[in-house]
Amino acid sequence: MSTGPLTDILVIDHTTALAGPYCCQLLGDLGAEVIKIERPDGGDQARGWGPPFVGELSAYFLGTNRNKRSITLNLGTPRGREVLHRLISRADVLVHNVPRESTRRKLGLDEATCCETNPRLIWASITGFGNTGPYAEKPGYDVIAQGMSGTMYITGEPEHGPIRFPTPIADITAGMYTALAIVAALYARERTGTGQAIDTALLDAQVTWLANIASNYLVTGEPPRKIGNAHPSIVPYQPFPTADRWIIVGVGSERLWQRFVEVIEWPELRDDPRFATNADRLQHREVLVPLLAERFRRRPAEEWLTRLEAAGIPAGPIHPPEVALNDEHLLARGMVIELEHPVLGMIRSLGNPIKLSHTPVTYRRPAPLLGEHTVEILQELGYTPTEIKRFRQEGVT
Question: How many domains does the chain have?
Fold first, then answer.
């Protein structure tokens, strides 16, 4: 039983891959009931994105589809579309990732048809390039958005070619923005009584990740350049090698710089005009950073981290994922969870970072098997056992 802020909200998830499923999982964690519609002939392609697999489900799919029920539905059939619109008539939100309007109309997923069925519906579209503009109907994955947004171009060391961020940041960002837009649209509906359409593009979402780099360019007209692990506006603010392993240090103010030079036992740097202010340090980055790197190599990481923490300077170890996912702090904050799957047993996955004091997120069910809940959902929609059997025989489900 959900006690989250979105309890009693019904979401139809007609998405595949990551952005849409991640969006709908966020809504499910917040208490919404999520019904995932999948093709009978294999379902969401992410089910097969492995190894690794747990039983028949890929780890990829397991990580973005909890708190959902799965119904298989062939929207290429009139009866399949009939079932879809019976669901839509009861739903609060529909999320899809079909890029072409002609395909949406064919499947009964277009905005006009869906909102005619239910004027209170929040109709949310997540596609590679959005529903307007010259690229609107192009297909697109996360990696395409990373490349076209400028992100890959500026990632990495200057001497290297473009580098893809190892996690699907365009998908995740688009999913988060869409979830936020859905919550805003639900709030607006309380005042207006009607739903509205949401149009999210992976490319738009990824461009927002340029953030301060985009702002710098838009103000100055100077093209951004690769600076590796350094920060374009703050020095020092990057990893450093110590005697035994790497650490990360962020000296983000002049007050912290004054403390920092004491921690590294190099007070002379304070009086060096090349490093007097952050602007000076930025100008002389190529001189300062090698000096600091040499100093950090003199002691082990733990000693430096103890000193930096005592001085109130933000710093930390650079963990591989297997260490981060077992960190006592992250475990204490519920960022690794366990869910009992009725077929696959105990499954560990990432928790939700949202912490609400009165209506917390909940983890009520693991990612579903393909069509696991088809019969019970059809029964809830009022279909008889005879009709349900016929749907299966006719390829509707």
Answer: 2
d(CA 378, CA 104): 23
pLDDT of residue 56: 86
Choose, from 44, 171, 244, 271, the residue flagged as catalytic.
171
Same domain, 102 and 160: yes
The CATH code of the domain that includes 306 is 3.30.1540.10
pLDDT in tens, 66-79: 999 999 999 999 99
pTM over 0.90: yes
142 as an active site residue: the answer is: no
According to DSSP, the residues that pair with 95 across neighbouring strands are 13, 124
What's the full length of the chain, in residues? Answer: 397
Q: What is the pLDDT of residues 179-207, one digit of tens each?
A: 999 999 999 999 999 999 999 999 999 99
- What CATH number is attached to the domain comprising 174? 3.40.50.10540
Q: Does a cis peptide bond (omega within 30 degrees of 0) precede residue 317? A: no
Considering the domain architecture, whether residues 93 and 205 belong to the same structural domain is answered as: yes
286 & 187 share domain: no
* Alpha helices, DSSP H, located in 264-355: 268-271, 278-283, 285-296, 301-310, 321-324, 328-332
* pLDDT at site 1: 63
Tokens encoding 276: 């007097």
Asked if 46 contacts 60 with a C-beta cutoff of 8 angstroms, the reply is: yes
Please compute the mean of the pLDDT values over residues 337-346 and round it to a whole number.
93
